[in-house]
Structure formats: C-alpha cells, structure tokens
Amino acid sequence: MTLSVKQLQCSRGDLCLFQDLSLELQAGQLLRLEGKNGSGKTTLLRTLCGLFMADEGEILWRGESIRKTPEVYYRELFYLGHQNALKLDLNPLENLQVLSRLVGQNVSEEVIEIALAKMGLAGYEDVPVRKLSQGQKRRVALSRLLINEAPLWVLDEPFVALDVAAVELLQSIIVQHVQDGGMVILTTHQAVPLPETKMQRLSLDRYV
Amino acid sequence: MAINWFKYSAPSSFYPLAGKMVPVFMTLAIVLTLGGLYWGFFQTPEVLSDQKQYYKIIYVHVSSAWMAMWLYVVMVAWAVLGLIFNTRVSYMMASATAVTGGIMTAISLWTGAFWGQTSWGTWWDWDPRMTTQLILLFLYIGYLALQSSIEDTRRSDRASAVLAMVGLAIVPVIYYSINCPNPNECASLHQESSLERVESNILIGMLVTTLGFWMYCFTVILMRVRNIILRRESHTSWVARLEEMQ
Amino acid sequence: MFKSFLTLLKRDLMLALRRKSDVFTVLFFFVIVISIFPLGVGFEADTLRKIAPGVVWVAALLASTLALERIFANDFADGTLEQMLMTPQPLSVLVFAKVIAHWLLTGLPLVLIAPLAGLQYHLSLPTIGTLMLVLLIGTPVLSMIGAIGAALTLGLRGGGVLISLLVLPLYIPVLVYGAGAISASMQGDVPLQAYYLLLSAFLLLALVFAPWATAAALRISVE
C-alpha cells in the first residue's frame, strides 16, 4: 500500500504553485505539509484527491494511476477539507449515515452513536446541525474518522475551530490510525506527537 | 515528411506561425471576395430585373450564413481537441472562432432582414432558416457569456468546451424541430436544396465569395488568437522577448 | 451503486421536506406567470385557447431554469458535492439521483397544477389530459438538460440569469413539440402519437447522455 507522487506540477491561473514535486508515502506513515499561505497546500491535497487536475506528473495508488482506477482509490481514501460537508437541515446521525452510504459503506446506528459520543456529542444525535456551534459542527465532521474504513486520510487543517480537549482527542485519533498501519496526509500548524521515523515533512515553499 | 503538429500546440511556437499565416490568408480573402463579388455583380444575367437586383445581397448573406454554421462546427472541433489533448492553443482557437462565428451569424441575420424587406416586404419572418440562424446566434452568445463570466481561464476554457459540445449535439434536434413542427406532416426531413435551382453564374459568384469569407475568417481568427495568446501569456519570458513588445 | 443512488435521492427529498418553501416558490412562480398573461392579452376565450400551449410551456421553461440554480449550489457551498466526486461509483449515477429528486420537487408539481392552467385558459378536458401528459414527459427533459447548465455555471456570479442564457435555446425542441401536441389536441381528430413518441425519444436521449455531461461539467467546475 503506497501512495506515490511523481513530478507533480500544479498552477492556478498564471501562477505556478509547485513543480517537480515527488513523494512517497508508505503504510504507517504521516505526511505533514508546510508552507506559507497561498503556497498551494490545499491545492496539493485536492490534487491528491483527484479533485484538481495537475498540469503534469502522476499520482499512483498501489501502483495504479488514480485517474485510471478511481473506483479503487476512492474506496480507500477519506478526505476532509475546509468545509464540513454536512447538511444543516439534517441531524448528525443522518448526515453521517448518508455520507458513509455514499461511499458504499454500511454503518449501523450504534457505531455512529459511539463515534459521536467519543467526540463529545452524546445527546446531540437528533439536533439539526444548523443548531450546533462551529466547533460542534467540526466535531461531527471529524467523527467520520472513527467510522470510515479508508486507510488513507487526507485532512486539510483538521485542528481549526477546535478547543483544547478536542485537539488532544484528534491528535490521539490520528496517532492511533498511523500506528494501526494507516496513512495520513495533513496540513496544520499544530504539533502532532509522532516519532520522527513515522513522520515526513514537506515544505511547499521550496518548490516555487 | 512527418510534421510534429504538437510542436504548434505550444503558444510560443503557434504565435509566430499564426503571424506568418495571417498575410497569406488576408491576401486570399481580399482577392477571392472581390473576385466573387465582381462575378456576382457584373457577370450574372439580368433575368431577375423585376426584383430590382436587390437579390445581389445574397453574395454576402448566403456566404455569411454558411460561415456561421461552419464556424460553429470548427469551434466545437477545437474545443474537443482541447478536452482530449489538453492543449491551451486549441481552447484559444475555439474562443477566437466563437467571436467570428457570432459576428457572421449577426451579419447573415442583418443582411437577411434587408433582403426580406425588399423582396417580401417584411424585416423578419419565422421562416425555418432564419429561425435556425437566430438560435445559432443564441448558442454563440451562450458560449461567449459563459466563457466571459468565469474568471479562471482553465475552468472557463473547459466549461465552455463542454457547453459547445452539448450545443452541437442538440443542434440537429433543434433544426429538425424548427423545420418540422408538425411531426404528422413530415415523417422524414427532405428539404430540397435550393442550390440546384440557382443560375450557374450566380452560383459561381456565391461560391467564390464564400471561399473569400472562409479566408477572411481564418485571417481574423488567427489575428484574434494572437491577441489572446499575448494576453494570457503576458507573464512569460517569451512574450517579453518579442520584437513588438520592445 | 443502486444503494448510493437511493441514498442521495432520499436525502434530497428529505431536505426538501424540511424546507418546503423552496418547492412552493417554483410552483407559485409557474402559477403567477400563467395567471398574468390573460391580464396582458385580454380575456377573450378563443385568444386564450390559442396562446395557452405556448404560455404554459414558456412558463414551465422559465420555472425550470429558475429552480435549476439551486440544484447543485447548496451541495457545492457546504462541501458535500466534493464528497460526491470522491465516491467509488460513477459520478453520473449520483447526478442522476439528484436530477430525479430535483424533478420530483420542481417538475412534477407543475404537472399536477397544470389542470388549473387548463381551466384558466378554457381548455377542454381531453386537452387538459394532453397538457398533463406532455408536461410529464417533457419536464424531466428540461431538468436533465438544465442540470448541465447548472453544473457549468456552479458558483458563478449571476448564475441564475446565465443558466437561462445557456439552456433556453437547448429547450426549443421540447417547447416546439410539447406546445405542438397541445395545439393539435384542440383540433380534435389529429393523431398525437407522433408528438408523444418524439418527446419520449428526447427523454430517453436526455436520460442517457445528460447525466454524463453534467458529471463532466461538475468535475470542471468544482476544481
């Protein structure tokens, strides 16, 4: 299980964000992206998810181009961007059910309730997301981490809008996933307590 | 000899090539258009004197109407090439073609209105051909509107290419529905071509003028695409090195 | 694949049930447009009967383009559309579910309210039947084609007007035969089968090709 990126080049409009970017991520590893605002972190993550089309280069998952076998890749990819991907008029339970069914996953209500409880949202299962606070909404979105079965997580600024307790919780979830042999790619300013051997860093400022 | 066509898919090599082609096409355009118009005006028999020779506007009218239709196909072809090979020049050609196509459609409608006024006594008639031409104008306008309302050039290129393809797929259906609004009366569409009834000298004049219009369209499309290239590539070093930029 | 289709269809219907106003605005728009025409052209029964097919269809086209702006906009804004682009199923299946849901919420109500228009325009009972039938076959075509326009204009300023500009010309065949069938049914003994067959053919083609084009457009627009 490897994600390899070869000579990737992406640009927005006239501006080349990065070029000749190569990396390889193995099972049980975390990749932390660094860079100034506007250095293309989000674009790189979206490119890795197949949402953004690179000018050049290719992305291989298990040795196959993700453009050629998206059905394989998307079964094993979990992406959480800036937006929570929640419907305001649905409650957390319904939201999580719909989202996991869309990727073809059957999750029982108990599993979702346990996940929500672990994220500190016990008792909010039936409240429309519209009525939750920013931090609570983010927690609902993050409880998908506990439900999904994908080995590769791509997280864009996952720590934003979380309080101290939630930050610690999220850190432990990410560490657990990596130790279980999963893979995580994230952008953050927050420290992630992982041994250096399991952690790669990539600064996009070097690629401009 | 094999020509590497992909070499010219880079704006930096297409720009000078287009620059070299412009004078050639322009000369051809002037010669053919003037020749065709001369033939049409002075070498045709005066059989239609009852129409007071107003019909001679057809040399412009028919030629521009043909160009309007052909250029839509050309535009879609460029757009498809762009989507397949992801070449920027193809998209630029598509958008340059769209402008000229829209202008040709407008010219054909305008000249058609004049002709209609002199021969039928009305500026506009919901005749199938005129209606189709009007819809074609709307399709060009839609394409240009979508393109100009998207700021990101890559998205605007690709989105308008998809729209152009969808448009081309539906155009035959639109054409059929306008020509045959009552399906009980025409099971199949056999519109007789009016070309066969045309006197041969008029036909020659028309065909030569149309060829001149083709050349004119090539000329302005290439000139326009050169402008588009300059605008979009203004940040690159090869543009900065151009003589006309000094 | 079918499961995710159903999931999305159910979700969109559920969301609409919780915000009913969206459905009713489109419906009332249709009713109002149809009702103000007689105020402009006069109340003479023959005139009204003559313009009825065109008026009803033009109102349906406008209502359809108005409603289309929202079909993907909410999902785009809250990030669920991105998640849909990253599912193992073909995107066109999910697009299909969304368009079907959209038609059930904005197209079907027009079909059901159409008899009201029939009464306002003094149409006979058989003609009202034809009116409902052609709307039933024709409005899904509008939703299917319109979805392409909505996907292309996703997130653009002035998206609503732009959609109309893009898709109204593409609606012409449906308008011509939809309105033609109603006019023909008023003449009594004209066979209508050809109209129904043509409209059904459009529907079939739209069902096959439009979701695919919409999916391609969404990938371009979400980038």
The quaternary organization reads as: heterotrimer
Shape of chain A: globular
**Main pleated-sheet profile of chain C:** none
Number of domains of chain C: 1
Query: What's the helical proportion of residues of chain A?
Result: 25-40%
Can you write the helix and strand succession of chain A as a string? Answer: EEEHEEHEHHHHEHEE
State the share of residues found in helices of chain C, binned by percent.
Answer: over 70%
CATH top level class name of chain A: Alpha Beta
Alpha carbon gyration radius of chain A: 17 Å
Keywords (chain A): ATP-binding, Cytochrome c-type biogenesis, Membrane, Nucleotide-binding, Translocase, Transport
GO biological process, one term (chain A): cytochrome complex assembly
InterPro entries (chain A): AAA+_ATPase, ABC_transporter-like_ATP-bd, ABC_transporter-like_CS, ABC_transptr_haem_export_CcmA, P-loop_NTPase
Protein name (chain A): Heme ABC transporter ATP-binding protein CcmA
Structure notes:
The complex is a heterotrimer of chains A (208), B (246) and C (223). With 208 residues, chain A is an alpha/beta fold. Chain A is 31% helix and 27% strand. Chain A has seven helices and nine strands. Chain A has helices spanning 41-48, 70-75, 92-102, 109-118, 134-142, 144-147, 164-179; strands spanning 2-12, 15-26, 29-34, 56-61, 64-65, 77-80, 152-156, 183-187, 199-203. In chain A, strand 1 (2-12) and strand 2 form a beta hairpin. In chain A, helix 3 packs across helix 4. Chain B has 246 residues and is an all-alpha fold. Chain B has a single domain, classed as Four Helix Bundle (Hemerythrin (Met), subunit A) (Up-down Bundle), CATH 1.20.120. In chain B, helix 2 (58-85) crosses helix 6 (200-232), helix 3 (88-119) runs antiparallel to helix 6 and helix 4 (128-149) packs antiparallel against helix 5. The longest helix of chain B has 33 residues, at 200-232. Chain B is globular. Chain C has one domain (1-222). Chain C is globular, with a radius of gyration of 18 Å. The two termini of chain C are 24 Å apart. Chain A binds chain C through residues 46, 49-53, 70-72, 74-75, 77, 79, 81-90, 94, 98-99, 101-104, and chain C through 3-4, 7-8, 11, 14-15, 18-19, 77-80, 82-89, 94, 222-223. Chain A: InterPro entries: AAA+_ATPase, ABC_transporter-like_ATP-bd, ABC_transporter-like_CS, ABC_transptr_haem_export_CcmA, P-loop_NTPase. Chain A: One of its GO terms (biological process) is cytochrome complex assembly. Chain A: This is Heme ABC transporter ATP-binding protein CcmA. Chain A: Pfam families: ABC_tran.
